[in-house]
Amino acid sequence: MKKKGFLRLRPLPTLLLLGMLLWDGEGWMRATVLAAVLHELGHLWAARRLGIPVDSLRTDFHGARLEVRGRMLSYREEWLLCAAGPGSSFLVAAAAGLLLSVSPFWGRLCGASLLLGLLNLLPVATLDGGRMLETLLLSHLEPRCAMEILRLCSFLCLFLLWATSVYFLLRIGDGGPLLFFSMGLFLHFFETMERGLE
Questions:
Q1: Do strands 7-9 and 54-60 pair parallel, antiparallel, or not at all (unpaired)?
Q2: What residue segments make up the domains of the chain, in order of their start?
Q3: Is the whole-model pTM more than 0.85?
Q4: By the 8 A CB rule, do 125 and 154 touch?
Q5: Residue 65 near residue 111, CB atoms below 8 Å
């Protein structure tokens, strides 16, 4: 049986990303992609330090996810693995912040990394923060109760994010990217919850 490659990219999101990179006049997209890559490298570094065998890195419209091979993770390992991504983003933001005077790109990388780290800490089931909350809840509560609390936290957080984006859109006339981001997370959240109930 032929072994699949480590990096598994979905074709449509990859083509869309390449197109956005080609028409990225001000460099925001390049900074965002670099911030995302460094975020995922934080997860990979943590997996290596924890001795977790990683089978692949999958990407799609909702981001990237490590596929672990061969064993179940403990709650502690899962929490540390999830925390490494935002932690990496904050370190990159701090390092890029020191280089603000060198080039505008470092300011963009600082902003993108900081935003990526903060967004990933949101207690939403499909993000790192949600997975961190899930491990904490499962280590103290029955699985059914833990999942109900996680669903409620995820829904409330996504609703607030969506409402904030609508406010910015109506009040300031800007907020389209946050609106699309929150709606994409909402769709992914409901898909994930449906699969969990099957």
A1: parallel
A2: 1-121, 123-198
A3: no
A4: yes
A5: no
Active site residue 142: no
Q: Give whole-number Cα distances, 81 to 77, 86, 99, 104, 188, in Å.
A: 6, 10, 28, 31, 21
Residues 143-198 have pLDDT tens digits of 999 999 999 999 999 888 888 888 887 887 766 667 777 777 777 777 766 655 44
Please name the residue that has the structure tokens 């993108």.
112
Catalytic residue among 40, 77, 78, 134: 40
Question: Tens digits of per-residue pLDDT, 82-125?
Answer: 999 999 999 999 999 999 888 888 999 999 899 999 989 999 98
Amino acid letter, 180: F
CB of 111 closer than 8 Å to CB of 172: no
* Cβ pair 110, 96 in contact under 8 A: yes
